[in-house]
Amino acid sequence: MALQHAASGELIPLQRGDDDIAHFTSVALAKTDNMELIRLVLPKDRDMPVHKVDGEITLLCLQGEIVCDAHGKSVLLRPGEMLYLLGGVPHGLRANQDAVALLTILLTR
Asked: In sequence order, what DSSP letters do the residues of 1-58 get, joined into one string?
């Protein structure tokens, strides 16, 4: 069964449930031809290895603390802080505390 994405005008809950943090959970919330929204759950001390995506991204920390390694430096994101990266920039993520973030990817064609 395919994942149901949110429709235009539909409410999207972003807070994690009590059992979300037990496993690395990425949930695609909405996807169009031009962008994808992902609710990213990162448990404490779980790394997302260095990778890159073609499109530009934003990462908005909603809960916890997330460290993003990119451009040869580490940036700490706390709730309410956002990071922007150009497409193709190698980056890795790790959580200093159990964390939830909203990831936006602008898709290239």
From this structure: -PPPPPPTT-----SPPTTGGGS-EEEEEEE-SSEEEEEEEE-TT-EEEEE--SS-EE
CATH number, position 87: 2.60.120.10
In a domain, residue 45? The reply is yes
Beta bridge partners of 59: 83, 103
5 domain residue, yes or no: no
Q: What is the mean pLDDT of each run of 10 residues along the chain (109 residues)?
A: 66 63 66 91 88 95 95 97 96 93 90
What domain range includes position 88? 25-106
pTM of the complete model: 0.83
Could you say which DSSP state residue 90 is in? -
